[in-house]
User: Fold this.
Amino acid sequence: MTYLHTLEEHDILEVELCAPPCNEIGTGMLAALEGVATTLSRKDPAPPKVMILHSSLKNGFCAGANLRELNDGLIDSSSDASTEQQLRQFIDRIHRVADQIDQAPLITIGVVHGTVFGGGFELALTCDMLIAEKSARFAFPESRLGLIPGFGGIPRLEREVPNAVIRDLLFSGRSIRASRAHELGWVAQLVNNGQGLTTARRLALQSAKFDRETIAQSKHFAKPHPKERLHQEKQTFLNLAQRPALKKALQKFTNNNTPHPYLP
Assistant:
């Protein structure tokens, strides 16, 4: 399966997520994102100045973690110790690639539409600026699995909005419309459906006019890295993941035959 496509020209890298049904993040997508992170950190030839991250799928940006793979490969194990080790390795890799995107010395623009749930929401939050089409809906549905977000979402969202907003998302599991996300502040621009990528490309051309050192130092100053909070989130996620509640919820999910079982 092809998980993403990349195109680079004029100091701008476009990353298109393209893995149906909705760009779920499993081992395949993670490996593809690790390849993107390597591109962002390259020294020679010169790295891009701007990255645009978007989805070409009708359903949305990303539905989150690949829960069927999690159930079949990471959780459904004969050894609890092996399960814990595999899950920790997976989460460590996710955090490593998310940190690389988050802190890359270039400008990152996320374009979202439709479903932006769980790990997909967390991936979007690694970007410096988010452009949301009006169809976008954001949610942290992990509580239904007996978990909290585990890909770094809470500490990254804490940089953008008051904690009361995060508690509302976390404790209700419900989704928030793009217009409300724009009001709350984690969406920089709200655009009509189908206009996100065009808007992002215009913004990228403007941002690419800056020299690399200005971009790198501005990014370092304006976007602090919540290292300690990310570590706390990871540990809480891994602690909760060892409970029977997760296995039960994953089995229920995998037996759900509706077209979009990840919807709240």
In short: Strands lie at 4-9, 12-17, 50-55, 60-62, 107-112, 115-117, 129-133, 137-139, 176-177, 189-191. The longest helix spans residues 80-103. Residues 4-194+223-254 form a domain with the 2-enoyl-CoA Hydratase; Chain A, domain 1 fold (CATH 3.90.226.10).
